[in-house]
Design brief:
72% helix; 8 helices; 166 residues
């Protein structure tokens, strides 16, 4: 195996491990007493939440493909622009969701503000072939936006908690 392939494989091991763990958890869910998701709370949610959730799911899936696939190729660049668009929609749409702190912004919105600033900077870095800066910013947005903010969406009292656990 060429050195670059070996390094690429090692870099993506955590993502592959997460995907494997998620598959095992889903397969074991009946044994754990979990039930099928109830999507009624999403259907009853406001349009802002529906747009936000749709964009976040697309961002999560496209991001996983980008993280696991080869970099610098035409498909990577095309999917990357699509990912950037869905990430921007996810961040901006979150500003219209005010249920955690009724009428105001919450601490979760700080991640959205960070993405709104970091996303153009990361795209600029890619255009200038500053690969390290681009990779770091994009990976940070993916992890921070999808896993930190996304993980907070699964807390009790939130819509995704109701979908999967209530």
């Amino acid at each position: 195996m060429p050195i670059t392939s070996h390094l690429s494989l090692r870099r993506h091991t955590p993502v592959a491990g997460f995907a494997f763990a998620a598959a095992v958890a889903l397969a074991a869910s009946p044994a754990l007493g979990l039930r099928a998701p109830d999507f009624a709370p999403i259907a009853q949610a406001s349009p802002q939440i529906q747009v936000h959730l749709s964009a976040a799911i697309a961002t999560f899936l496209i991001g996983a493909v980008l993280m696991l696939g080869p970099k610098g190729t035409l498909p990577h660049r095309t999917l990357g622009w699509t990912w950037a668009a869905t990430m921007a929609v996810t961040a901006v749409s979150s500003l219209f969701i005010r249920q955690v702190n009724p009428g105001g912004l919450s601490f979760i919105h700080a991640i959205s503000g960070w993405v709104i600033i970091a996303l153009p900077a990361a795209l600029y870095a890619a255009r200038r072939h500053r690969v390290r800066a681009h990779r770091g910013a994009m990976t940070g947005m993916y992890v921070g936006g999808m896993f930190v903010a996304g993980g907070l969406a699964f807390l009790p009292g939130r819509i995704l908690w109701d979908v999967f656990f209530a």
